[in-house]
Design goal:
This is Serine/threonine-protein kinase Sgk2 isoform X1. Helix content is about 25%, strand content about 15%. It has about 400 residues and is α+β, with helices and mostly antiparallel strands.
């Protein structure tokens, strides 16, 4: 349910019979948003709140709870900022999206799906987690784990290619994350080096879940044409129904790029690249082990029914000889030493972020909490249920 802060509280709230008066919502489009007065010693303290899934009123974060320090990324609908929580000093990456842009392209369902998937990610070490989500009349805020080791794309551009042991480590951690999503019946659909981050120790963190498809059972398919051109599987290009094997194609494309420096069928001419993906045999330059070549051939099989991972999913990837040096239990528990240390000095160390972003001024409007709702009813109702706060921050039985 919606959590936009609606209006300002009355200076003298009523407390009939000693009970807390929640009062009506000031926003008719979001009737379940409340303005809650909580006893604090002898006085009352205002907290915006929302009714959680288990009948608990939960604290709702607001833009003014954070100091927004730097722009660290940009996307189609907004920016990602480094922010510091004022109360506990914790650093977060806050993804701020413009509602108007999302509604214009009718992408609200993808945003809500991203929120849903993010809430499941807290259970896996190689997936970014959602800590809070909230909204204002104009913006949506995802408060995410802050990861400052840089994008895999950034490091790959700088080093051109990785040796097999390093590529194997990253591919194994990514495969573990993808396998976990598949176990939840989620297809990722947008695996690429730009969506793979490194944390301060050098472990993989998969991010950006806007193209995820939920509720796809092992034998089921979906058909939406989406993804990033260089990494599209043949069945997606042919606009055929596809299943979770599409993610293993993408893993193959990313592994190939880590080892060779470019995606497997890359061309500057997009039409030619699509032709290559559909019809050109996979060409693997010399220098790779037999195990690496076999894995790439299996992952980049043009027939999704014959592709590695099409039958037993992650188990097939896990058991491939290329990954025989990997102890998967140690990998999952981060007991393996990453092959590269980003050497960040702390949260304020932004050397692995593009200066094009970090040198941009932070807009003051991002950190403001409007006192009134000034959006259309469509904008107010399109993102009902977006807000989230951890259950351990529930503030009152309701």
């Amino acid at each position: 349910m919606d959590s936009s802060r609606a209006g300002t509280p009355s200076p003298q709230p009523s407390r009939a019979n000693g009970n807390i008066n929640l009062g009506p919502s000031a926003n008719p489009n979001c009737p379940l948003v409340t303005q809650l007065w909580i006893p604090r010693g002898r006085g009352l303290s205002y907290k915006p709140s929302w009714l959680g899934e288990h009948g608990m009123l939960q604290w709702c974060a607001r833009p003014t709870d954070f100091d927004f320090l730097k722009v660290i990324g940009k996307g189609s609908y907004g920016k990602v900022l480094l922010a510091k929580h004022k109360s506990d000093g914790m650093f977060y990456a806050v993804k701020v999206l413009q509602k108007k842009s999302i509604l214009k392209k009718k992408e609200q369902s993808h945003i809500m799906a991203e929120r849903s998937v993010l809430l499941k990610n807290v259970q896996h070490p190689f997936l970014v987690g959602l800590r809070y989500s909230f909204q204002t009349p104009e913006k949506l805020y995802f408060v995410l784990d802050y990861v400052n080791g840089g994008e895999l794309f950034f490091h790959l551009q700088r080093e051109r290619r990785f040796l097999e042991p390093r590529a194997r480590f990253y591919a194994a951690e990514v495969a573990s994350a993808i396998g976990y999503l598949h176990s939840l019946n989620v297809i990722y659909r947008d695996l690429k080096p730009e969506n793979i981050l490194l944390d301060c120790q050098g472990h993989v963190v998969l991010t950006d879940f806007g193209l995820c498809k939920e509720g796809v059972e092992p034998e089921e398919t979906t058909s939406t044409f989406c993804g990033t051109p260089e990494y599209l599987a043949p069945e997606v290009l042919r606009k055929e129904p596809y299943d979770r094997a599409v993610d293993w194609w993408c893993l193959g494309a990313v592994l190939y790029e880590m080892l060779q420096g470019l995606p497997p069928f890359y061309s500057q001419d997009m039409s030619q690249m699509y032709e290559n993906i559909l019809y050109q045999p996979l060409q693997i330059p010399g220098g790779q082990t037999v195990a690496a070549c076999d894995l790439l051939q299996g992952l980049l099989h043009k027939d999704q029914r014959q592709r590695l991972g099409s039958k037993s999913d992650f188990l097939e990837i896990k058991n491939h000889v290329f990954f025989s040096p990997i102890n998967w239990d140690d990998l999952y528990h981060k007991r393996l030493t990453p092959p590269f240390n980003p050497n960040v000095a702390g949260p304020a160390d932004l050397k692995h972020f593009d200066p094009e972003f970090t040198q941009e001024a932070v807009s003051k409007s991002i950190g403001c909490t409007p006192d009134t709702v000034a959006g259309s009813s469509g904008a107010s109702s399109a993102f009902l249920g977006f807000s989230y706060a951890p259950e351990d921050e529930a503030i009152l039985d309701y």
